[in-house]
Amino acid sequence: MTIDPHREVILRVVPRPADINSNGHIFGGWVLSQMDIAGGIVAGRIAQGAVATVAIESMKFISPILMGDLVSVYAQEEKRGRTSVAIRIDVVATRGGGAETVALTSGVFTFVALDETHRPRPIPGD
Fold it and tell me: Per the database record, which ranges form the HotDog ACOT-type domain (predicted)?
């Protein structure tokens, strides 16, 4: 996973002690949640309104997340359909006061645009 330094960071967060598992790593579900939040922000901008997560594809954990990591979540549009948008999400950690950057996980999340009755609606034109 290569992170373009000019990409926008959508979320930046530090895990808390409650987010750690018995192995001393951060729960996978915690990072999945952060990815879903960041992807939803980007998808909502594209859809110009409410969206819902409908699929998570090809997600891969590359390295564990440790206590003290500054976790940065990058997200960008990968593919657009009539009512849905696929968002590529990459997560990296900054460790040791910024001395080291570590790729953590990556995946593609698909979101569908919703109307006021929570039904799929077309995404506004390109």
Answer: 5-117
Q: Where are the domains of the chain?
A: 9-113
Question: For residues 107 and 56, what is the distance between their CA atoms, to the nearest angstrom?
Answer: 7
How far is residue 3's CA from residue 43's CA, in Å, rounded to a whole number? Answer: 20
pLDDT tens per residue across span 68-98? 899 999 999 999 999 999 999 999 999 987 7
Alpha helices (runs of H) in 1-126, residue ranges in sequence order: 28-47
Q: Compute CA distances 63 → 68, 102, 120, whole Å.
A: 15, 7, 36
CATH topology of domain 9-113: Thiol Ester Dehydrase; Chain A (3.10.129)
Which residues fall within 8 angstroms of residue 106, CB to CB, at 6 or more apart?
Answer: 1, 59, 60, 62, 88, 89, 90, 91
| Nearest-angstrom CA–CA distance, 58 and 106 | 8
Quote the pTM value.
0.91
Amino acid (1-letter code) at residue 86: A
**Rounded CA gap, 104 and 42, in Å?**
20
